[in-house]
């Protein structure tokens, strides 16, 4: 399992580092911790030693025996460095080459991927000096986990709160997945990716509607994966319980199939890759009742009419766009997927079982335009998202070579 070095600096959110360490240990990661002296005023080293099951490093000159140059050995040991919380002070020090304690010295000596999980008062967060320092560090390959909005220790409700601990851990785990992809940061660089996700909702009256079981997890995973691989991503989402992926160019919420069609049609012209992952209702009630339908004697009959087939419509007007569809089927999965591939003028389709719609995992078969295919066994939807996008990027590269 991977080795993660956690740096804890002296922000009030330092106490949350305990939860991050605990989560990482439960997932099997090896964890070591460096604290600044200011951080020890907020949470004790003993707490983090107990959770990490390793000695916590604070002072470069402590009296414990030294058998190695620790700021070098720690940077060599780590596969990844995470500073959480990353304060205004620690960002400023690293950006300006200051290495005056154990943490800053290790960061200055490491060549491993380094993440700063930002947390501070909103006025500090919006300070242009911080923004300059962040941009400077990004040029050198340092990565940043943006802060959330919320109630801050100073009693402001604003941006500056440390991102939820689970989301920080998820981001680190995603990095370990996509960093194994060759040339990952440029795989989709410069590409504009449009993703549809979630279910749609067709209203019957003010309190009733027709929908389906789609969780949106696959589409959200694809949107996040496309961001991670360098694309500008727009996500058009029907109702879900999921949190918006990070660093999207645009996030558009819709309810009905008609609303989704309008938004996708608006964005489609300026798109390089369209991934249609939404579970769009094929039908909608012919008539919407402005008042709640009252219970009456006998049966209730509702007439349904066809919705637009969004992916089919885009297939008719596509020019340069690379179109990816999904076929979630309960039977004859590959046969039905092939029919959609041909009928909708797609470049690729992902076939899978409809029974996995709400699951965190899936098994898929990717079928290309020439009807050759690749199968992927049961994996998390996030892992599959990277696999799908690798195939997309490869197909686009081959298409470009053939067109030269």
Describe the structure.
This protein has 404 residues and is α/β, with parallel strands linked by helices. It folds into 2 domains: 3-178, Flavin prenyltransferase-like (Rossmann fold), CATH 3.40.50; 184-289 and 303-403, 3-Layer(aba) Sandwich (Rossmann fold). 34% of the residues lie in helices and 25% in strands. The chain is built from 13 helices and 20 strands. The protein has helices at residues 17-26, 45-52, 70-77, 88-95, 102-109, 122-125, 128-139, 165-178, 217-228, 257-268, 310-317, 333-343, 381-403, and strands at 3-8, 30-35, 56-57, 80-86, 114-118, 143-145, 148-151, 157-161, 192-197, 202-205, 208-210, 232-237, 250-253, 273-276, 283-285, 304-306, 322-329, 348-353, 361-368, 373-380. Strands 13-12-9-14-17-18-19-20 form an 8-stranded mixed beta sheet, with helices on both faces. Strands 3-2-1-4-5-6 form a 6-stranded parallel beta sheet, with helices on both faces. A two-stranded antiparallel sheet has the order 7-8. Helix 1 (17-26) links the parallel strand 1 and strand 2. Helix 3 packs across helix 5 (102-109), helix 4 (88-95) crosses helix 7 and helix 9 (217-228) crosses helix 13 (381-403). The longest helix has 23 residues, at 381-403. It is globular and about 80 Å long.
Gist?
The chain is α/β, with parallel strands linked by helices. It is 34% helix and 25% strand.
